């Protein structure tokens, strides 16, 4: 997404842009495929949500969008429950009188219609709320996060990770609460194809920027860029790789996706996404047949279902050779900051960007905002 957005903005401003994409398709991890009367997201469910109107306005130049409010089911003690934990989940998991008492305490402490964090509950001075926090943590967060991040104690991760999933003091069972929640009507791939469809953009698929391609040599302390050929390079990959691992490898988490075609069954898979916090090696299963009706497509008797297994990123491994997430620990952050310092002297020539370049937990809207501001900064630097 980052590369596409930057490319389009610069092309619109009269720059010739050459896009190098190591995969055989555009759209990065947002890539999807139209099949079985739906869109299958090849790299995990991508749910666009934002409260930033500027992002919506920008993206709507390249696609129509259809409202979609994501819901997630978690299988907890064998039962399907709505996540994030809400007053609704409380009613489904606790005896009636206890659920009423806890609801009252939550409303008293945080206010009806609000949301809080798992940390606030775990640290609550009220013993009932603290205990409830312990229950939610054990049943929803602990096992899932251990698998996802490969850590024993997920509470040691940057708090921003678990805070992505709130505890709702309401009956709202939507996964997100942003103002704009929607899907590109003809899929993400088409959105990015449209964005890159510009006479000044040359797209080179199946072409990673092997160091020789753009004459970058970052193995030496000095980076060499063939400035006669390119005014600037925007690099959307891993920052440590770009710097030839000068300070050692940054940790990333990877995912392995197992796809299968199954008979459509919304009774067993009531939502697009089902999370499995405990018991299995995988974290979630996405059933893309749920998007058919959302996008106004006819249902199909078969569904594409993709199971997601997390693992440690290892470029030489069979299943985990692609980095999907930075690892949000303080030691990784410290190492990232060294790399960030390392590339500063080269910023007139190279901008490192994107989730892996900035080592941040960007959602699609964050990536889009960051890309727009990178493009604008570049444009203002050359006038
Ligand atoms: N998480 C969890 N249980 C869940 C859902 C999320 O423990 O049922 C935690 C987990 O650590 C996960 C993080 O919250 O990595 C962020 O969840 P999100 O759904 O935003 O993950 P993403 O879609 O970005 O992989």
Strand order of the largest sheet: 7-6-14-15-16-13-17
Architecture per CATH nomenclature, i.e. the level-2 architecture of the largest domain:
3-Layer(aba) Sandwich
Characterize the largest beta sheet: strand count, sense, and whether it forms a barrel. Answer: 7 strands, mixed
Q: Which ligands, by name, code or SMILES, are bound?
A: uridine-5'-diphosphate
Beta content comes to 15-25%
CATH H level, superfamily name of the largest domain: NAD(P)-binding Rossmann-like Domain
From the N-terminal CA to the C-terminal CA, the straight-line distance is 26 Å
Rg: 22 Å
What does this structure look like?
- The chain has 2 domains: 2-71 and 181-251 and 321-381, NAD(P)-binding Rossmann-like Domain (Rossmann fold, 3-Layer(aba) Sandwich), CATH 3.40.50; 72-168, no CATH class.
- The strands form 6 sheets. Strands 7-6-14-15-16-13-17 form a 7-stranded mixed β-sheet.
- The chain is of the alpha+beta class.
- Helix content is 33%, strand content 21%.
- β6 and β7 form a beta hairpin.
- The protein starts with a helix and ends with a helix.
- It has helices spanning 2-12, 53-59, 87-93, 96-110, 118-122, 127-149, 159-162, 188-196, 239-242, 290-294, 330-343, 354-358, 364-381, and strands at residues 17-20, 32-35, 38-41, 48-50, 65-67, 72-76, 79-83, 115-116, 167-168, 180-184, 201-204, 233-235, 252-263, 273-275, 284-287, 302-312, 325-326, 350-352.
- It is built from 13 helices and 18 strands.
- The radius of gyration is 22 Å and the shape is globular.
- The model has no long low-confidence stretch (mean pLDDT 94).
- It binds uridine-5'-diphosphate.
- Uridine-5'-diphosphate binds at residues 74, 83, 140-141, 144-145, 148, 154, 161-162, 164-165, 275, 277.
